[in-house]
Amino acid sequence: MGRAPCCDKANVKKGPWSPEEDAKLKAYIEANGTGGNWIALPQKIGLKRCGKSCRLRWLNYLRPNIRHGGFSEEEDNIICSLYISIGSRWSIIAAQLPGRTDNDIKNYWNTKLKKKLLGKQTKVQQARSASCLSFKQEMKRESENYRVPGMVNQASDWTLLSPPVMPLTSTNQDLYLRDQDSIRNILVKLGGRFSDDHPQSSTTSTTTNPMNFRYPFDVSFSQDHQLYEDSMTILSSASSISPLNSTCSQTNSTTHFSINQVGGPNDMIQGLDAFQAELSELIYSNNGFEGLYGTDNMVGGSSTGTSSVESSSWGDINSLAYPQFVSGFEPCQHQSIP
DNA sequence: AAAGGTGCCAACCGCAACTTA
DNA sequence: GTAAGTTGCGGTTGGCACCTT
């Protein structure tokens, strides 16, 4: 036996809302508020609609200051960054974008942003495949030059097995850390706290990744404890799948290649769905969001004429962008402080 | 011009969390 | 403590508009 329906479906109109229905609902809510009961609201105003439908219509369409379409690059960046860190938590992502609804963002992601990024990804993958191939060919030539009769040539073996790798450079490290910082900033703004901000915390658990980027988490205070834990799980997974687990460096005529065989949490990919993982890698391999979108498109880039932040990291950009979003914006409603 | 395909978006559905009695 | 009612969320779908053949 299922639960009772929230309304009498036989007497409820479905489908698109008429202007009259919109006007009725809007006028009533603006005059009286929702009354704290969406289920009873349609009967009060004589609408043959389900309460859930009224709520949805109000939140997604009739509510003041709703914006539709025309997502900016900075909004794209925020959506991508949050999607990587917390996944498809559209309501949380929407909370960072005033005037946007979770439904709008979800639709935008599914219809445009995802494809846009996949398009970028294809190009990157092609470029990477090409560079990987030429690298392999070069290695093969080199290995043939140094072939020793009677010895197994290991270089030719591993070149066949090696995945496309991103050379680890200080620049990549910086970008990686800067993106981590930006995600961290967002998560902190969402109510979390990192224990390295509060070193005296006794509930800290610390994990270290191969490059000593630490992500200790203190969940002793959080506006949304579960959200924060989830985010941290995903974030720690994301950090572990970064190409930083693989290194490739070249000194003079010697090529060093290694993949850190890390067990436990460091080789986790769970917690990110395939697209999230790919997107995360794409961004890192693309030199961060700047590489993905180009600095011209970033907040404060040349298009806005504020050249002082042209070289800003995503973390900087986020901190610049966020305050203007916050003003006049409602915080998440169902946050609770323990 | 018509048919079929595709993209987009508003709205629906079902489930889980939360609140209340 | 628990059952019923309500809210909020994310996934999915239906239908319209536009594009391609």
Q: Give the class from helix and strand content and strand pairing.
A: mainly alpha
Indicate the proportion of strand residues. under 5%
Radius of gyration: 25 Å
- Strand order in the sheet with the most strands: 1-2
> What composes the largest sheet?
2 strands, antiparallel
Oligomer: single chain
Care to count the β-strands? Answer: 4
Number of separate structural domains: 2
Q: Order of helices and strands, N to C?
A: HHHHHHHHEEHEEHHH
Q: Mean pLDDT, as a whole number? A: 57
Number of helices: 12
Enumerate the spans where pLDDT stays under 50 for 5 or more consecutive residues: 138-180, 190-271, 294-338
Shape: elongated
- In percent, how helical is the residue content? 40-55%
Q: What is the straight-line distance between the termini?
A: 36 Å
Subcellular location: Nucleus
Keywords: DNA-binding, Nucleus, Repeat, Transcription, Transcription regulation
Domain Myb-like: 9-62, 63-113
Protein name: Transcription factor RAX3-like
Quick recap of the structure?
The protein has 338 residues and is mainly alpha-helical. It has helices spanning 19-32, 41-44, 51-62, 73-86, 90-95, 102-145, 154-161, 170-189, 225-240, 274-285, 288-293, 314-326, and strands spanning 193-194, 217-218, 246-251, 254-259.
